[in-house]
Amino acid sequence: MDILVNGVLLGLGYCLIAIGMALILGVAKVFDLTYAIYYTIAPYAALALIRTLGPITPFWLVFIISVGASVAFALATHALLIIPIQKQHLVVFVSTIAVGMAVQELLIFKAGSEPIHLPAILKGSSNIFGVWVANQKLLVGGVTASVLAMLWVFLSKTRLGLAIRVTAEQPEAMKMAGGNIRMIFLLTAILAAIVAAVGGLLLSPIYPLHPFDWLDLLIIAFAVMVLGGLGNIWACLPAALILGISEVAVAIYIPFGGIIKRTVGLIIIFLVLVFRPTGLFGIKGWEEES
Amino acid sequence: MERIKKYLVLVTVLGVFASVAIALVGYAQSTLERPIIKIGVAGPLKKSSGIAILRGAEMAAKEINDGGGVLGSKIQLIFADTEGTAPKATEAIEKLCYSDKVDTIVGAYTSEEASAFQEQSAKFKINFIFHGTTHMLDKKYKENPEKYKYHWSYTASDLHGADYVVNHQYEIFISALKKQLGVDKINVAVISDMALWTEGIHTKSQDYIKARPDCKLVYVGRTAREANDFTAELTELRAKEVHLIIFTTAFSAGYSLVRQAYDVKIPAMITGTNLLSWSIDDFIKAVGVDAAAYNSSHCFTTLPTTPHTAVLIERYKKAYSGYPLSDVGMTYNGIKAYARAVEIAKSLDHDKVQKSLTKVRLPEKEVWGCKEFWFDDNHRVHVSPTDGMIFFTYQFTPEGGVNILHPPEYRKGDVLVPPWVMKQWKKK
Amino acid sequence: MTETIRLLQVPLNYFRKEPIYLIIVLFFILELIFPFIISNYWILRIILFANLFVIYATSFDLLAGYGGIISFGHSLFFGGAGYLAGLLSLNFGLPLIVCIITGCLFALIVGLFLGYICLRLKGPYLAVVTLICPLVVLTLLYISPTILGGENGIAGFAQLAGGSLVKQFYIVLIVTTISLLIISVLAKGNFGLILKAIREDEIGAEAAGINTTKYKLMAFIVSGFFSGISGTLYAHIMGSIGPTMMSLQYGMIPVFMVYLGGASSIIGPFIGAYVVTFLDLYLLAFPYLRIIIYAATIIFVLRFFPNGLIAVPNEIGRLKRWLS
User: Fold this and answer.
1) Paired residues of B76 in beta bridges
2) Interface contact flag, A273 C299, Cβ < 8 Å
3) Count of domains in chain C?
4) In chain B, which residues have their Cβ closer than 8 Å to the Cβ of C168?
5) Predicted local distance difference test score (pLDDT) of residue C315
6) Chain C residues within 8 A of B119 when measuring between CB atoms
7) pLDDT for residue C77
8) What residues form DSSP beta bridges with A132?
């Protein structure tokens, strides 16, 4: 029972992390490795805000400004760096890693390499099916569910959502219909950054954030996406749940489990890519380009 | 016109004589080979421990220079970042030795670099005065004293730490829990991170608990240094009804476990060796007063055990605003020891200084956290509450303060047991 | 007299066709006298490491530039070989040359395995799989602190040439030159040609009768072997190795070097290796700025010169037009 509850909550958190990247991957077809930086920037910005403006700052203001910081960074990266060289996947890969490394060093320079701790929004803990969990984790679960719901409504019911879906599956058709692809890509980046920033702000009270955690986050996001199927946003949820539950199970039952946990994700990526590259639910809108 | 020229010549000649005289006097005052002593400071300068190493060195250098320097020569510090990894540490040392040509090197932090440094000291035949806790360094020195004689350690070894916790610290908490909860048998968990220096403590703690009839070892675990998710471990600990968690770590796992244990209100006390709690302020800031409360660890140099340590802590707080990490005291002591050795040797020659380092004895009024500072046969600082570096056990209070629980002569207050632990286990 | 001139023209013609060999030879001769003209040992040491990374980067380029197989996990060869050599030297006291050769053979075998796994993978899938392979091995390292050194690595094994910088310099120089020559022969000859054909159109190559599997595997093996050489030498010059040698950082190093300098050439990785090594080590005094300058350089170069620094002369014309 412990495994189930903790695993599901962990998986929901992972889902939140992965969705944004799946969006970018599915629509813009690029591996934007600075994605994890969008997650990282928001908590650091929040901390800086709280430090300069004092602890009495209204919480929602800090939240919005921090998310805004992430969005600004994402826009800058995509507009200046990624979109111009979008077709050269490898260069994007390498450049975004370089950006990530640079931001990491900047953060270490400004804030030290010790982990940061944000105050939790929901303090205390509750008893779910006999298992004690921190309330913040429940908040994360709730937020993930609502984000998924909102995304579904947006993508299937609105015109803008339709535009995004068309661009994802048939970019040529979009161009011919006179749509502004560049805007769509930037919009996707904004959405992804918002999701990532929210994830960062909600998850860092529970799991202390180091400036170099972005690589771990990328691995998690990759594992979820690969398992579900690259570019397939909805597959992220079941894939993330599977990942979360298996990690918790490994941590409890296997010696050195605490350390091997992260390898579970790696092994999943490995096995899936080698034996079933399309993932569990198939790839959506991502052709086998090389 | 002739007169002016003559005056000019006279003034110039006088000026030259004066400069030569001043130079000679200055040179005569510095009886060492060089007027500037270059001390390299190597460490993970981007981490807080590295910054502490830096500041400790700065504090010592400033005090020595303000007091006239070492036999007239001033100390100059040259920094090199090791990033906490062995390859970069090696490069940092190479740069300091080849390019900057330093006279000695203080600093370092992790066990990964410590071994590399010991090798470098042998290769360059430079005295290194270092923070290498792993007892492997002592072992290697004993096996080959001639090769490694240039390597000195200003911290206690992990074996010192292991001996201390096993002989003094755990007893305090086991007996307090037995008394205040009214139970006969204490369930103990031993968790350590995966660094080299925790090996000794990890095994010795387990053996100690297993040997005690009033304790039961119910859980043993190792964690990654920067682990940030202890949900699984905490769930198991709760299932195994643990009363006391012995937690040994030097990295951010020390924040995560404490915070998450508090989040789920685990009914157990946490003690052991949590290096992160050595900086009182930072720890409370990181995990919050409520989560920090009731945690305990042992340490050396950060709390005012000796009166002079209190003075130095105040001096540090004034200069740098914030509470000092233990590394501050460590490098401070290291540089003071080197300066004294140079004074004894009256030279900067590495071999002469090497011999003098064995003779260095710094009194309480000149060092952090020691009754007296000197190097023992293993080229390591002598640890003892009577004539060496003092280990002490301390506990955080719910008000955000700290109580010293051991050694008895510094003890303030009794062991505090968290209310939720009492509620869970206290026999009615 | 005319006879000698005629004889001399043969190698000169050859060099004209493939100037790379001349460049390698000139490089070797030039660097021979470095220890005598460069008195700052630190700079000499930087050049030593630059040469070492030239091997690493060029071996990567053989696979990535020529073969189009971009693996982000070359640190598996580099660090793996280094670890094996170090472990053998520390625990069994085997003579250095045995350790180094064993390390390289190990890298070779690992290359075979990795190549086999990656046969059917392409593009991003390949990148991700190769990226995570060394990470998985790293976890193995972390859980065995006593045998494999865990997070602290291992130290104290024998150093190359007893630690003498000058001797090390010459050994590395000789190894680098020989490696460059071998890789050049392979790359500029039939092997390289076939790899390029496979890179451009694998199906077409198969149709033309080329055994793509064999060549891809061979590329992996050769690449792994030379990466192993640089790894073992690196370990023995440092005298200590840590898990960082197998981390993403060291896996990205050859990528940066090759794409900075220019892929699918021998000079490209060479330039990239020198630029990156100098940036990295020279800026050691400024811990924060270092990585920022490092990353900024890479981003800048890749953004405006996607073909690397060797293409700069060509790109300048394009840049001039872009500016005006």
Assistant:
1) B38
2) no
3) 2
4) none
5) 67
6) 155-156, 239-240
7) 93
8) A127
Full residue range of the structural domain in which residue A138 is found: 2-289
Distance from C-alpha of C54 to C-alpha of C73, rounded to nearest angstrom = 17
Chain C: give the shortest CA distance to residue A130, in Å. Answer: 32
What distances in angstroms separate CA C187 from CA A256, C61, C78, C219, one per listed residue? 45, 10, 21, 10
CA gap B111, B93 in Å, rounded: 16
Q: Which pLDDT belongs to residue A288?
A: 40
Distance in Å, alpha carbon of C228 to nearest chain A alpha carbon: 23
| Structural domain boundaries, residue C25 | 1-32
The answer to whether the Cβ–Cβ distance between C125 and A273 falls below 8 Å is yes
In a domain, C37, yes or no: no
Residues C277 and C236 sit within 8 Å (Cβ to Cβ): no
pLDDT higher than threshold 60 for residue A285 = no
Which of the pair, C289 or B77, is modelled with greater confidence?
B77
Chain A residue numbers touching C129 (CB-CB < 8 A)? 269-270, 273-274
Q: Are A43 and A66 in contact (CB under 8 A)?
A: yes
Contact by Cβ (8 Å): C67, C198? yes
Domain harbouring C100, CATH code: 1.10.3470
- The β-bridge relationship of strands B402-406 and B392-396 is antiparallel
How far apart, in whole angstroms, are the C-alpha atoms of residue B390 and residue B306?
9
Q: Is the same domain home to C56 and C17?
A: no
- Structure confidence at residue B29 (pLDDT): 46
Q: Which residues neighbour A231 within 8 Å (Cβ) at sequence distance 6 or greater?
A: A22, A25, A26, A29, A168, A225, A283, A284, A285, A286
Q: Which residue of C has its CA nearest to A86?
A: C303
Same-domain pairing of C72 and C196: yes
Contacts of B108 in chain C (CB under 8 A): none
Chain C contact present for A288, CB below 8 A: yes
Q: Which two tokens stand for residue C169?
A: 């310099």
Interface of C with A (CB under 8 A): 68, 70, 117, 121-125, 127-129, 132-133, 135-136, 139, 142-143, 248, 252, 255-256, 259, 288, 290-292, 294-296, 298-299, 302-303, 306
C275, C279, C281, C287 alpha-carbon torsion, rounded to 10° = -160
Token pair of B179 as six digits: 């008394």
Q: How far apart are CA B72 and CA B36, in angstroms?
A: 9
Whether residue C240 and residue B195 make contact (CB cut-off 8 A), yes or no, is no
- The CATH number that applies at residue A117 is 1.10.3470
Would you say B237 and B219 are in contact if contact means Cβ atoms under 8 Å apart?
A: yes
Chain B positions touching C53 (Cβ under 8 A) are none
pTM over 0.90: no
Same domain, C26 and C175: no
Residue C117 in any domain: the answer is yes
Q: Does A237 touch chain C (CB under 8 A)?
A: no
In this predicted structure, which of A107-121, A228-242, B148-162, C213-227 has the lowest mean pLDDT?
Answer: A107-121
Burial status of residue B387 (CB atoms within 10 A of its CB: 0-12, 13-18, 19 or more): middle
Chain C neighbors (3+ CB pairs < 8 Å): A, B
The phi-psi region of residue C150 (left if phi > 0; otherwise alpha if psi is between -120 and 50; otherwise beta) is left
For C51, counting Cβ atoms within 10 Å of its Cβ (0-12 exposed, 13-18 middle, 19+ buried), the class is buried
Q: Summarize pLDDT for C138-163 with one digit per residue, the tens.
A: 888 877 766 776 666 676 676 776 66
pLDDT band (50, 70, 90) for residue B282: confident
User: DSSP for C220-283?
Assistant: HHHHHHHHHHHHHHHHHHHSEE-GGGGSHHHHHHHHHHHHHH-SSSSHHHHHHHHHHHHHHHHG
Residue with tokens 């900075």: C260
At residue A254, the 3 state secondary structure works out as coil
Q: Which of B223, B259, B263 comes nearest A259 by C-beta?
A: B223
Q: Please, are residues A115 and A210 in contact by the beta-carbon 8 Å criterion? A: yes
**What's the number of domains chain A is made of?**
1
ipTM above 0.85, yes or no: no
